Amino acid sequence: MRILLCLSHSIEERDQLELLSSLGYEVASLGGYIDPANPHDPKRPPLGGVPCHAEVKNAVDAIGSDDNLGCAQSCIPDAVLEWLGNDGIIIYHHYLDRLYGQWDRVRDWMRGGSGRRVVWRTVGQSVQNNELQAAPYRRDRLEIVRYSPKERNIPDYAGEDALIRFWKDEEEWSGWVGDLPTVINVTQGLAQREPYTNFGFWRAVTEGRPLLPAVALGPGSGSIGGPGELGYDVMRGWLRRARCYLYTGTQPASYTLGLVEAMMTGIPVVSIGPRWMGVFPYGPELFEGHEIAGRWTNSPDVAYALLRELLDDDDLAAEESVRQRAVACDLFGRSAAAAGWASFLG
Asked: What per-residue confidence (pLDDT) applies to 43?
């Protein structure tokens, strides 16, 4: 079976390529990992062990546009559809206009082989309009793989064919020691994307507090005293050494990769509460990051107190590390994701 990934989230793209390839599928991407050994995005390392499919890459290179990958996702080249064969599967992320804009053609392709399928894989940025838009395509054989059970609370929910969470390798994301008495957060554009990143909560918890060293990490963090975008190994070093993590979530999303990677590493997490998820009226019902983390609050003052406990009590921090990592391994470990995709794909 061959699978074509048309994914707009480079980290999820990398994880999907690695996992599905390890399960024995032939997988190609019309994204930043079209050549897995030479990715376009430096956020995660190359995938030297995943094959580059020359038929796919050559067809995309032949487009000759300033944005070959965007063009290829908006109109999958004929040669790529041929490469997929009679039982191929196409998987899209949330730039669904690229899929819907070529739907008649994709539908005709599906009808040409009994095993051909097209899938929308959600990544936590679905809103009511996405659900409404998907409904007619659902009646036309579009399948949906959800990433969180909380997406069922989105109005006009379009249904699901499977629920498979994000995943992380338990060995790769591990090794917390907590010897740096600092509170951290890893978010792209934490200040710049307010209110969607709940930067106001971070600021209310951390600014002007006595004895609460706090550093925001990630692209854009330089403007608020952080180090800016970090290399992969440096970022993982922060997660292993910092004492605790203040999770602010993003809207709309049930949870983010930042929470998954933090908890899998073992750094104790204090989460924002659902009351802050008000950009969309159904946001509080969509959020589950607080339930996953376990230690959470809607109050900045209480969040400060919870973080101080973790900074001051080595034993408590160690206990929380073990507890939260066990939750992460159960929800987001490789085996759970592998079983889910193997069952869904067949």
From this structure: 83
Alpha-carbon span 269 to 246, nearest angstrom: 6
Cα distance between residue 100 and residue 128, in whole Å:
17
The answer to whether the beta carbons of residues 251 and 277 sit under 8 Å apart is yes
Taking 3-state DSSP, the helix, strand and coil percentages for the chain, each rounded to the nearest 5, stand at: 45, 15, 40
Cβ atoms of 50 and 17 closer than 8 Å? yes
Mean pLDDT of the chain: 96
Does 180-332 match 2-163 at the fold level? yes
The DSSP string of 225-251 is TS--S--HHHHHHHHHHEEEEEE---S
Q: How far apart are CA 234 and CA 239, in angstroms?
A: 9
Mean pLDDT, residues 215-230 taken together: 96
pTM of the model: 0.95
**For the chain, how big is the Rg over CA atoms in Å?**
21
Q: Which pLDDT score is estimated for 73?
A: 97
Query: Which CATH code, of 2.40.128, 1.10.3210, 3.40.50, 2.80.20, is assigned to 2-163?
Result: 3.40.50
Domain spanning 180-332: CATH superfamily: Glycogen Phosphorylase B; (3.40.50.2000)
* 300 vs 204: CA distance, rounded Å: 6
pLDDT at 211: 82
